[in-house]
Write a structure and sequence with these properties.
single chain; alpha/beta; Rossmann fold; seven-stranded parallel β-sheet; six-stranded parallel β-sheet; 13 strands; globular
């Protein structure tokens, strides 16, 4: 019986892990068990989550510090459980700051540790490399440039692509999606994705709404689509609408369905993160923005060494998509950037060509490649038994 321990604290990690579990199950005996910390998508695949995954969904240094004691206690309890009832393998899905501590302890105890999603040493914090070598047996990388970063280390790294590139069609049908959402084909539609976490909405909601007010003043025919990931984030956004007296905006709040909103739109305004990759994969021109707490920003801006934070720009290796961060992320700047993009078909088409190349590059049948990289560890354990 294979025993696979996993930790996935973010919504995007939950989805990655769920795809991996689904790919592994047919290769293992029916009594294989998956357990640890995971979200609803993993649980639908039969995962036994011992603690609520949302406890780990914090962003930024200041926010993490506020929750440190509770998170550290949870991690110690999980380590104690895993050392007492040893899994055949531990898979940390993203969540570097939580998982690397666990992985180091488990690797020292002789338990293979696989980290699904390479830590972002390509963006910042190259000083992580020694800790990665000490903690991880194998890294499953989503992006093609990442294995070369580990070539001179003892850590094995396998490029597996990105699962969203497998799921999202190479040609997203905007007209079909508009018909499904009952949106006129000639309507100007702007998708606004201000973030998936409550911490992000705290800094982004009012900025996005004020930007929408400016854009609506310029384009009375516009419709804004705003996907929200939970009832809590929807309430936050609706509270910000009321505060800014913006309830009359032509705005449709959607529960989830970020891909639907992006597919249906003409252009998008997106908070930096996985949603920027979603927008690129459906081929929608976008403007990227982000704000975090002032304290977290002061720390992070001194640690980054690349000029980009948006995934499409990182993958392209250049500024394809405009980025407005922190103090530059004003409603005036964002409205002007979105308005300029709407008026510039040549720039839109140039973005879409780059996005198409990114999509093909990331389309690797990720779950099956990741499962194939993990199975040898389980087979080796079975042969030793």
């Amino acid at each position: 019986m294979a025993r696979i321990a996993m930790v996935a604290g973010e919504a995007s990690s939950d989805q990655l892990a769920a795809h991996l579990i689904a790919a592994l199950k047919p290769q293992l005996s029916s009594d294989a068990s998956f357990y640890g910390i995971g979200g609803p998508k993993m649980q639908r695949e039969g995962f036994d989550s011992r603690w609520p995954a949302e406890k780990l969904a914090v962003r930024g240094y200041f926010e993490a510090l506020r929750n440190y004691c509770e998170i550290a206690r949870m991690r110690r309890q999980l380590l104690k459980t895993l050392l007492k009832n040893r899994p055949d393998i531990f898979i940390g899905v993203d969540g570097y700051d939580f998982n690397v501590w666990l992985e180091k302890k488990l690797k020292r105890a002789g338990i293979p540790t696989v980290h699904f999603v390479s830590p972002s040493i390509w963006a910042w914090r190259k000083n992580r490399l020694k800790k990665i070598v000490d903690s991880m047996s194998h890294i499953l990388a989503l992006y093609p440039f990442e294995p070369a970063l580990y070539a001179q280390t003892s850590v094995k790294c396998t490029y597996v692509g990105h699962p969203m590139a497998d799921v999202i069609p190479l040609q997203a049908n905007r007209n079909a999606m508009r018909e499904r959402l009952d949106i006129p084909l000639n309507q100007l539609v702007i998708a606004m994705l201000p973030g998936s976490r409550q911490a992000e909405l705290r800094y982004m909601a009012e900025t996005f709404i004020a930007t929408a007010q400016l854009l609506h003043a310029q384009n009375p025919n516009v419709l804004f689509l705003v996907p929200m990931t939970s009832g809590e984030t929807r309430l936050q956004f609706e509270t910000a609408l009321w505060k800014l007296k913006a309830n009359e905006l032509p705005l449709k709040i959607m529960f989830g369905h970020s891909l639907d909103a992006l597919t249906a739109c003409d252009v998008a305004l997106v908070a930096s993160g996985t949603a920027t990759l979603e927008a690129a994969l459906v081929g929608r021109p976008m403007v990227i923005t982000y704000k975090i707490s002032p304290w977290s920003w002061r720390i992070m801006r001194h640690m980054g060494y690349q000029p980009w934070i948006g995934l499409p720009n990182i993958l392209a290796g250049r500024f394809v998509v405009p980025e407005f961060l922190q103090d530059d992320a004003t409603p005036e700047n964002l409205a002007q950037a979105v308005g300029n993009l709407l008026a510039d078909q040549k720039t839109q088409m140039a973005m879409q060509r780059v996005f198409a190349d990114i999509h093909i590059q990331l389309r690797q049948n990720t779950a099956q490649k990741a499962a194939a990289a993990i199975l040898p560890y389980l087979q080796k354990k079975s042969q030793m038994a």
